[in-house]
User: What shape does this take?
Amino acid sequence: MRRRVYLDHAATTPIREEALQAMVDTYRRAFGNSSSVHLYGQEARKALEEAREEFASRIGARPEEIVFTAGGTESDNLAIKGVAMAAREVGNHIITSAVEHHAVLHCCQELEREGFEITYLPVDRRGLVDLERLRASIREETVLITVMTANNETGTLQPIREIARLARERGVLLHTDAVQAAGKTRLDVDELGADLVSFSGHKFYGPKGVGALFIREGTPIRPIMQGGHHERGLRPGTVNVPAIVGMAKALSATLSELEETHSRLRALTEMLAAGIMERIPGVYRNGSAEDSLPNVLNLSFEGADGESLLLGLDVEGIAVSTGSACTSGSVEPSHVLLAMGVPPHLAQCSLRFSLGRGNTEEDIDYVLEVLPGIVERIRRISGRHRLLRYR
Assistant: This one.
């Protein structure tokens, strides 16, 4: 039987057994609507609030500061649009970075159509924003800064704590999309300093279709959907209690083994990077090897189209990505890599390897065994033998 290796954990993770069992148990014993006043509703409400307390405790928040959503995209939308609408009479300027997830960028583009002014901060070759440029971009009418904690394509970690200090100095709210960082780094919202933080359950071995938004007490925000008074009036609709319970259990279990998993994944990621660089010429690393998540590796293979590489690896049972899962199928080069100064022809030749708790050295050995031949074959077919260095 052909070996199967999953190296696309930045797209989604397999659900943990603890989370799955917690969900099954909740479906069976607390299936009521948590907004109902009868016994069945009370049981569901109890499960919901216990999960809220558990989730909040893992990120250093108070339960009343957690709003549950359908995932990271909804959390980003609620944070950005909700604050923008609440602060519109105060100002109409928002600052973000050029390498944000499309859930953030498309929100900002929509707000531009509604009269807001958006500053898109450039990044350096590592994918980091410049703090002095950020400081200079803050204006009297700036109401929100939104910069991700960790990039979903390169794993680069932004200096969120420093950004938070700048924001506080100028009285500006800060939102950070921590979807990729949660479960890979320990996040304490007070230490982080952000006023709003987005999470998504399926990125840390929880179920899909559920997420959370931390909203610091006192943060002005309005709902972006109408229909009910659920979740403090900010997120209408019947609450998905079993998924929320599963997400809270997944976060707790994942954080309980964080130190061991972090160091092991860092070692495996660097083993993969070193092995590829040693065996294959014309390979370039995108992003920082130091200021990054321990499990994400983005490489450009000169002369070998990323989609062709992905398909070649898939035939061998290896799952990777050419970038964000939300842009899968796009023929355009990654906006993240282009913003980092990667030439378009190399951006088209990139792969993202993202490791998880189940990966082993044997997995890495298998990738290193089959990948060189795939790259050589694609380069030969495309007629691009001679490699041109760009750095």
